[in-house]
Amino acid sequence: MRHPAPPPPAATAPKPNPTDSSEPAPPRPFQLGLPALDAFPRKLWARLAGRRARGLSLAGLNYPDPAGYPPLREAIARHLALFRGIHCSADQIFITSGFQAALGLAARTLLRPGDPVWMEDPGYFRASGALRLAGARLAPAPVDQDGLRVDEAIRREPDARMAYCTPSHHSPLGVTLSLPRRLELLDWAARRQAWIVEDDYDGEFRYDGPPLPALSSLDRSGRALYIGSFSKTLFPGLRLGYLVAPPDVAARFAEACNLLSPAPSTLDQATTADFLDQGHFARHIKRMRALYAQRRAALAAALQSECGARLRLDGQAVGLQLTAWLPDGEDDRAAAARLRARGLAGQPLSAFSLECGHPPALLLGFANVPAEQAPALARRLREALDLPLPK
């Protein structure tokens, strides 16, 4: 067995480098899943958080409600009714430490090991990985220009116990689940007594009109669960999300939360509740929609100018990413590796696929790319695509 070497004597120990920092590295351009961190109102947030910390009572030091801070649950219920068309009580809302915790809570509460689950193909790889970890048997459900193909999913796996979907803005193709498909999916769930998990990860950001009502707003049979997160609307470091359970299973989720206690810090929850209740959240979303529309247009124009012969951009005016289609036959994983070699981010579409093949494409986040930087970054991307593959 190898043993670690003893530490050097104090006299010869290396001195700390004053430039060392525990701060994580800054995000790379085109990184997916990031909002405009540079535009977040940090001073306002710090003021709200400081006020909450200074006013912390003895009761606030006790164990928190395992289902989440009640005023935040109430604030989310009001927000969903106003902006997503979902009418629910605060008792149906369960606070978690983000989307993955909410999905894990749903899987633990409603699924048994080996249960088949429809998974969009292509689909969000963290969702498919979490469902596998929970013991689910994934049944790939193809996606086309109208979203999840319900008829094909039924043909492939009619006995699925759950369907995972991103109807407002499909991850990663960016399409919206059409109304006929939504009704078809809800009808299937009602007939089969199956569950639908709606992941509304960035449905707030639509640039050619108001956000669409959530699929869950159409549910009349109590089969749809809605998962939301503040990672895109506020900032991912907050680690705060929520799940809305149908009324008939809310007690089961409350029991699960009592055992698992998935909610994050009460101080963070209270600060978020203040941010919502004082109107800051609605104003922030309005500002971000305008900013993202500008940044999206700037990056699309720059990419068209630099890479128009090499890339074809989608036309989906929603979400925080662009899909850049590569020429047929090109390896999108190799293209993504070339981007990384030049300090750029971007994900290959093939990384999201289970079994259904799709043309090669790169997924590029634009929310954290200021408009004035778009031309230079598009040039770097073109140069990166022309590089030989790093060994």
Second rung of CATH, namely the architecture of the largest domain? 3-Layer(aba) Sandwich
Number of domains: 2
Q: Remind me, CATH topology of the largest domain?
A: Aspartate Aminotransferase, domain 2
Rg: 22 Å
How much strand content do the residues show? 5-15%
Main sheet record: 8 strands, mixed
CATH classification class of the largest domain: Alpha Beta
What is the quaternary state of this protein?
single chain
Q: What is the residue-averaged pLDDT?
A: 90
Distance between the termini: 33 Å
Residue stretches low in confidence (pLDDT < 50, at least 5 long) are 1-20
Main sheet: strand order: 1-8-7-6-5-2-3-4
Q: Which structural category fits the helices and strands?
A: alpha/beta
Helix content, binned percent = 25-40%
What name goes with the CATH superfamily of the largest domain?
Type I PLP-dependent aspartate aminotransferase-like (Major domain)
Summarize the structure.
The protein is an alpha/beta fold and 391 residues long.
Question: Features of this protein?
Answer:
391 residues; alpha/beta; Aspartate Aminotransferase, domain 1; Aspartate Aminotransferase, domain 2; 2 domains; 8-stranded mixed beta sheet; disordered N terminus; HTH_trans_reg/aminotransferase; PyrdxlP-dep_Trfase; transaminase activity; aminotransferase
